[in-house]
Task: inverse folding
């Protein structure tokens, strides 16, 4: 199983900080934001990792991360996304890297305190399908929300205007290699992007989408200045910074 960390986009919600750098290079307490999702993958046992980034600061990731020695890796892989085509488009750039393997995708601004290893171990033996991780949020209008009918997941709705629940799909997704065939069938959304929610709903429609509730703490640190601050404060108070952090 291989890992992909998605670090594209312009980070407009974090302007003016992102006028001079990629948002995934901004600090979360004493480490760049991108360190956290990489460490989450490493802790889960993922050996081969690709970083997908874009924009004018893509080269800064190579200077910062190198071959991944700080994470115990012998090599990191890189891909470049032109423009803002969405999460699904960015994942599509990893097709040749993934090959016939399964892939775990994590958004570069997702900070998790707690392990995803059990979920990875559960998904890896599966022949076909996908898995998403859920976390209960206070404001479900800001996320992709899992809609249930009794105990059955029936749809994932992106930023629902009406209340359908509080179970948000966090930025950690696991797929078999057929995900790239699904991506090729997608059409851009109203905002001109290929949406990862459409990928997840395609698996759900065929009955092969599993889900797990993440047993830990999670935040989308790139969604606002306040979330960036909250993430930094949490790392300082609960995770102890770089020397003592156990993600």
Result:
């Amino acid at each position: 199983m291989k890992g992909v960390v998605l670090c594209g986009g312009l980070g407009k919600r974090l302007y003016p900080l992102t006028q001079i750098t990629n948002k995934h290079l901004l600090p979360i307490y004493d480490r760049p934001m991108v360190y956290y999702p990489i460490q989450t993958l490493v802790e889960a046992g993922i050996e081969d990792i690709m970083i997908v980034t874009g924009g004018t600061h893509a080269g800064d990731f190579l200077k910062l991360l190198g071959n991944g020695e700080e994470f115990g890796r012998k090599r990191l892989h890189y891909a470049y996304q032109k423009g803002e085509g969405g999460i699904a488009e960015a994942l599509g750039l990893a097709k040749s890297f993934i090959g016939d393997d399964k892939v775990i995708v994590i958004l570069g601004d997702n900070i998790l305190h707690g392990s995803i290893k059990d979920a990875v171990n559960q998904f890896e033996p599966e022949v076909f399908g996908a898995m998403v991780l859920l976390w209960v949020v206070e404001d479900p209008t800001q996320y992709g929300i899992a809609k249930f009918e009794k105990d059955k997941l029936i749809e994932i709705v992106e930023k629902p205007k009406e209340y359908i629940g509080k179970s948000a799909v966090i930025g950690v997704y696991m797929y078999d290699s057929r995900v790239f065939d699904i991506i090729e069938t997608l059409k851009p959304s109203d905002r001109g992007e290929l949406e990862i929610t459409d990928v997840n709903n395609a698996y759900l429609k065929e009955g092969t989408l599993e889900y797990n509730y993440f047993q830990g703490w999670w935040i989308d640190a790139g969604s606002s200045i306040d979330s960036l601050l909250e993430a930094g404060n949490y790392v300082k108070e609960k995770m102890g910074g770089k020397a003592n952090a156990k993600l």
